[in-house]
C-alpha cells in the first residue's frame, strides 16, 4: 500500500521521480558541525519583503550591512527566504533560481555577499512544497544540499510547510519531523561545506517540540509560531522561551524568530501604533534576546534610503543604534553559552539573569506593562556570590556604572522598557570600573 500511495502522490503532486531513495535517518547524535558556537546573527528577507526579495535588494542589504557597522558588530548571515526559486526543478532534478528575481543566479549572489565579508543563506522545507508552493526538498535532500554547497551557501533556513494534522500529510511528509530534518542534516554534512541548519516551524500548531531533539539535528530551532513586529508578539516569544534554557547551548539555540526592531513594513498603511515597537521596546527586545542567548536575526529593511526608494522602509539611525550596542551583543555572544532564566515574572515585572563566562551575571529588569515601574532583585537571587565590598552594576544602555553596597539590583524602568545590567562582585579597594 505504501508503494501504491507514493505512486499516486507522484502523479498528483509531482513528487520526486522513481529511483530517488526514500528518506533514511540514523540514530540521533550530537550535531558536532562546529558551527553556531554562539547564537547566529544576521538578516532574513521575509518580514519586510516576503516573496518580493530580489538580487538587487540582497546586494543593497549586503552593502548596508558591510558599511553601517552591522557586519563588524557580528551580524554575518544574510538569508533569502521562500520564493527564490522557479516553480519546477530542471531536467536533472535541481532547484533553479527565479530568473526574473535573480538573473545572475545564486552562486553569483553568494560570491557578492562573500565579497562583503558576509555569509549567504537560503530557504527550503522538508516537504514536497514550500509554504508558498515552490519545490520542497523532501526526497531531494542530497541533491539540494550539493546544490547549495556548490553555490557557496552558508546557512539553510529549513521550514516545515505541512498540514498540522499528521493524518492529512501526503506520502513521506507523514514521517516524523525529526527524521526529515535529520536527513537534511546528514546531506549537508556529506557536502563537506559548513552550513548552519536553522529549523523554522510552528511547534504548537504542528505538535512538535524541536527543542527536545533539535541539538542533535540543527544549530537553531523555532520555539513558537511566527511573530510580527508588535510588542505582544515579542512578549509571547519571551515567555515561551523561559522554560527551555536547558536545551540550548553552544552549537544549538532556541530561536525566538526574527527581531522586530526597525521593521516598519508591518505598520505600513496602518495607524495602529501597536504594529511596531517603540524605542524602549526595541531595547527590551535586544536585551532579553541577549539574556536568552537567542539568535539575533533582523527582519528590518537594511538598506540606505537612496537604495530603498519611496517604496522601501529603510531603518532609522536610532533603530540601527539598538542593533549596534556592542555591550549587549557581548552578552548575547558570551562564550559560556548558557541561556538565561527568570528570577521572577510577577505582574509583568520581570527579572531575568544569565551567568557569563568571566563570572559576571547579566540581569535584565524587563517591564512589560504599560506604566513606569520600579523593578528590583538582589545579587543573591541573581546567582552572584557574596561580596562584602558590594557589586559593580554596569548599565549597558545608559553606559553608566554604580556600586550596590548591599546587593540590591534595581531601577525605575519605563513602560515596555528594560534596564540591562552587567553585574560583577567588587574586590576591596577597586572602583566600579576596575
UniProtKB/TrEMBL annotation:
Keywords of this entry: Glycosidase, Hydrolase, Signal
Protein name, entry field: Glycoside hydrolase family 27 protein
Keyword Hydrolase among UniProt keywords: yes
Ranges for domain Alpha galactosidase C-terminal: 347-423
Any GO MF annotation of the entry: hydrolase activity
Position of the signal peptide: 1-30
InterPro entries (alphabetical): Glyco_hydro_27, Glyco_hydro_27/36_CS, Melibiase_C
UniProt keyword Signal, yes or no: yes
